[in-house]
Amino acid sequence: MSRRVVRQSKFRHVFGQAAKADQAYEDIRVSKVTWDSSFCAVNPKFLAIIVESGGGGAFMVLPLAKTGRVDKNYPLVTGHTAPVLDIDWCPHNDNVIASASDDTTIMVWQIPDYTPVRNITEAIITLEGHSKRVGILSWHPTARNVLLSAGGDNMIIIWNVGTGEVLLSLDDMHPDVIHSVCWNSNGSLLATTCKDKTLRIIDPRKGQVVAERFAAHEGMRPMRAVFTRQGHIFTTGFTRMSQRELGLWDPVTQLDAGGVCPGGWHHGRGPAPHPQACPPGEGWGPAAHRAHTHPCPAVLRRLKEPCWRPHLNNFEEPVALQEMDTSNGVLLPFYDPDSSIVYLCGKGDSSIRYFEITDEPPFVHYLNTFSSKEPQRGMGFMPKRGLDVSKCEIARFYKLHERKCEPIIMTVPRKSDLFQDDLYPDTPGPEPALEAEEWLSGQDAEPVLISLKDGYVPPKHRELRVTKRNILDVRPPSGPHRSQSASDAPVSQQHTLETLLEEIKALREQVQAQEQRITALENMLCELVDDTD
């Protein structure tokens, strides 16, 4: 009699639960634009939702504590002249958010900690470089003020938001519309999917495709891809029969060592020049091929030396490939690198499926499904530092309905009230590891980690400073001679501009102080009226 062995995992009993009705956000007119983005972005301070707006595009920003019914006249963030397609919070400043629109522009906004009394219409900076609508935004995970945008013109542009300049422009790598873009953990590589059904891994600073896979999913519907913490790539897509499918790919396939090691042992997938060669598929690389039946002594001695390093190559066979169901909704993957759990949320679905990715076959393990009655219009995913560690909460989603937003909490059941070290390893914090110039010069750094043992305390309000370079400083002279007065003009203009900006900033602070004072006086007046009654 065979006995079924149950796989051991601390996440095997993760369950999802919708928040109570009084913790939801009611009466929100969620955008009805046709675009496969999440329509929602969240961080430990704010919840942002793309909403319906006449005469242009807008999104709403709510403090997390402002639950319940939202006033119909609640201030919006407006400024785009066409619908907003994507929004993304800066990982290094909880008050800064970027928005992309059908009007071909990207705007970066500074959100105040207090509730404004009127619409926010002035962005900190407007980035113009795309010729068609911009539908994808993604901040760099470790470098300060580095923002990626992808548009309908098949271009990827990487910006320095601090100066408003284009750092890199990748305009000849995608022959068709880009469906998704994802950074790896240290921001050195990009994984992109395109309408031509090709999955690409791009080194943006070298401007080259280092690996690609055609028809990772054979269907014509949009595909999504995210990096995992092991360097694998998790994808969602469709089969030829329009069945939804998930896949796991490992682009690290062989050693960058020229093929033959000193002991005569051969590594990689090419032809073996020596009788004592590793069998095909057993070179150093993927977890599935790491166990040698006859390990090479030279590799065991020299594995950590610089010459024995993995490099990216074309990846042909998937590590895992699973069919799921038949539906038209694109599956949006949300990956948690701390737990290595990926959550799949389909637009129009009423469920969230979640899987654990491990080094053991079948590599992608189904955990459970959270189901509800209402279909989802979009989904927001809270960063790990915004979770409640005292309740063993490992993920929190913000599900968009037609007229409301509902939090969904994923919890690991534990009896103890103490901090669970195994559930909460150190996680990326709000401090950047690099400046934009350092990253552009070729430096890489892992995210700066923080501990959640004592809970996360958001840092004080930090203002994003934008330094625009004077275009006159880089423009070539019009003639062979320049007078002294002409050379002094840019300096004086720059000084005048800085003076005006300082005065505008002072006036804004004064207006904000007066608005807070008026609000306090109105509250006092209400209390006096209540006492009189």
From TrEMBL:
Residues in DUF1899 domain copies: 4-68
Source superkingdom: Eukaryota
Region (Disordered): 473-494
InterPro entries recorded: Coronin, DUF1899, WD40/YVTN_repeat-like_dom_sf, WD40_repeat_CS, WD40_repeat_dom_sf, WD40_rpt
Coiled coil: 497-524
Biased composition (Polar residues): 481-494
WD repeats (start-end): 77-119, 127-169, 171-212
Metal-binding found in the keyword field: no
Record keywords, A-Z: Coiled coil, Repeat, WD repeat
Family (UniProt): Belongs to the WD repeat coronin family.
PANTHER family: CORONIN, CORONIN-6
Protein name, entry field: Coronin
Source organism: Erinaceus europaeus
Gene that specifies this protein: CORO6
